[in-house]
Amino acid sequence: MLRAENVTVRYGAQTVVDGLSFELRAGQWLMLVGPNGAGKSTLIEAIAQGVPYTGRISLEGRDIRALKGAERARSVGFLAQKNAVSYAYSVEEVVSLGRYAHASGFLSARDDEEACVERALEWTGLKALRRASVLTLSGGELQRTFLAQVFAQNPKLLILDEPANHLDLIYQKHLFSLIEAWLKQPGRAVISVVHDLSLAKKYGTHAVLMDRGRCAAQGKIAEVMTRERLEAVYGMDVYGWMRDLLGQWT
Q1: Interior CA angle at 197 toward 195 and 198, to 5°?
Q2: Pairing with 31, which of 120, 165, 181, 189 sits 20 to 30 Å away (CA)?
Q3: Does the structure show a pLDDT above 90 at 53?
Q4: Cα–Cα distance for residue pair 92/130, rounded to 1 Å
């Protein structure tokens, strides 16, 4: 579904993503993992066409740069780590913007559009807040609003940068379970940046382990997130640290 070939992102003399290549197939959830500054968020911004890059990124065999904005929006949904708003739209209005790329102009399609928005509001637990101004929302509520917008968009590929950012434990669990269920539908895939390695191991099918802009390892999640590879990249015994933390709950 998605192929990156020798993708490089530079800011002046600084190389943030350095010749990175990978493939993502339908049904896979690819986790981008690595320490701060590894280039994870910059890589997905390149995939979302948010930053200039060299190399090639293909979506279903087509160069993603050649796709028109509306065409790309029908296939790719992107949830940023931070979403700031300065307008007093309601939650429902913001979620409805996810259907913009699908607008046909025909009245007959209206019921389907409204059904997509209603389903997205229900999935993300926002029905009670549908009339609320986004300016009054907490950080977690705002994040869920933009996730609902992506769900309403109904893309083939979800790109998520720290999707559980600002969410409490209940909604973290709810969110990842929703994405897992969404992924089970044919012809869909997910790529996400997740700093919580426990979430990456539980929900990811595949991973790219990044270190200073380069790929340290990639493949199936269990093959990438080994004790030795994580320690080499993070410079610490990640397995020991995680077991020590979780051991407090026994």
Answers
A1: 130
A2: 120
A3: yes
A4: 5
Q: What six digits make up the tokens of 150?
A: 């992506």
Q: Which residues contact 97 (CB under 8 A, 6 or more apart)?
A: 149
- Closest listed residue to residue 54, CA positions, set 102, 104, 88, 9: 9
CB 55 within 8 A of CB 6: yes
Q: Which strand ranges, in their side-by-side order, compose the sheet holding 14-24?
A: 14-24, 2-11, 54-59, 62-63
Strand pairing partners for 57? 4
Residues 6 or more apart whose Cβ sits within 8 Å of residue 4: 20, 21, 22, 23, 43, 47, 55, 56, 57
Amino acid, res. 23: E
pLDDT tens by residue, 165-209 = 777 888 788 888 888 988 998 999 999 999 999 999 999 999 999
Inter-residue contact 117 to 152 (CB < 8 Å): yes
**249, two tokens:** 């709950």
Q: How far is CA 179 from the centre of its chain?
A: 10
β 62-63/54-59 pair status: antiparallel
Q: Is the pTM of this model over 0.85?
A: yes
Number of residues that this document lists for the chain: 250
Q: How many CB atoms lie within 10 A of CB 2?
A: 23
